[in-house]
Design a protein that fits this description.
Blueprint (H helix, E strand, L loop, with lengths): L5 H23 L24 H5 L2 H14 L11 H28 L2 H26 L4 H20 L10 H23 L2 E2 L2 H20 L13 H22 L1 E2 L11
Amino acid sequence: MDRDPRPIVIAGATAVVSTGLVAVAIWRGWLGPDVGRGANFCEAARDWIIRQPANTLSNLGFVAAGLLIGWHASARPAGDPPAGHGARRRLATAMAGIVVLLGPGSAAMHATQSAIGGRIDLLSMYLVASFAVAYAVMRWLRGGIALLAATFAGGVAFCELVAASGSGFPVVGHRGNAAFGLLLVTATALELLIARRGETRARRTYAYASLASILIAFAIWNATKTWLCDPYSPIQGHAIWHVLGAVSAYFLYRYYASETISTRPAASLARS
């Protein structure tokens, strides 16, 4: 199969650079002292360089998911590419990089339990949720890249403002988490509206798999914070949240990539 190497190369470079920088920052103590950030996710902090090993290493799932997205996006369609294919490939590449960043972003917090690590973790979450909303808004309003970029920036700014307004929040624990969840719910609602409009065709199995993965992950995450918590177990519920979150992100991309519009040129992120 003929491939454009740029998506996988960019995703791979993002993985190497971001993971390497976070690893050095953890080793050198650049992220600051342990202030217990993330200690509410059950796993006991070890007296090691990596404070929460299961919750840290499970973030490799996001790196793997981002690389898989880049690999899939690198495939060139047979024959003449559809109109706008280059722009869609660039969006797929951007999504691959954002999903990759979830891994080292979350690891920065779980490995150090530092305040800076916690902020990096939240920012990586805001990026992926804002992308999901922005891509849905662009398609719902039939806009272009400028609309996507503005919505994406607005989503990140919204999350940062909500997080800065306080810390505590029922169920999810932090207002930043609540903002992240609200963006995901908004993106889901918009995807339903787009599907009901009937202008697109897509493999909805991917959408169902993505939604099921994140809902199961959320249920496990909550259960293992309380009554199923085993602080010294090598299998942690929050680590499962990371792995299933990576699965959800990959299936969401595959849903995007499978979308076509029958009345005008294909509008998928990349070839399905």
